[in-house]
Amino acid sequence: MSRPVLALLLLISSILCTLLSCTAPSQGQTLAQVESEHPEIIIAISYFNETLGGQVEALQAAHETLTIFAPENTAIRALPQGALANLERNHTLLQDVLLYHMLHGNYTARDLEERGAFRPKTLFDNNTVLIEANASGVTVNGYEVVTPDVFFDLGVIHIIDGVLIPPEFRSDLLG
User: Fold this and answer.
1) Edge to edge, what strands does the sheet with 131-134 contain?
2) pLDDT tens digits for range 92-133
3) Looking at the domain assignment, is residue 134 inside a domain?
């Protein structure tokens, strides 16, 4: 493809994206860079890297975008001691819980606010989370988004003040 044609296609896609309110993820910021800028989610990022590393690479290769709701370190540490130990011992359970924190697509805070209340599907078994946005902020299953719009190379991270647990695991993990 010639350079002028490629440039024209890029210009058209940029214009369409602007008209359709698309948001592109930040170029090149890795999870490691996010981790260094946001130490309050270092535990969540280490879990994502250790548990979902291969899946994240596959999403990158497929040019997928993600929205991640990353719990603060204090929220993870506040889990009942048995629940945290169980998650760390059971790789599959931890993976499922992490996938429940992720959505396909790139939802910025503005996108969430414009939608109001809705139930998007997570990457875990098509389960949904309840996102509610109003003048006082954005919540996910009742947990507050304390830091919105942390952009990385696959999309956007919103830091939340709780850990999202899929309904089918709540009684096992939380008692």
Assistant:
1) 102-104, 66-71, 155-160, 143-152, 137-140, 131-134, 117-118
2) 999 999 999 999 999 999 999 999 999 999 999 989 999 999
3) yes
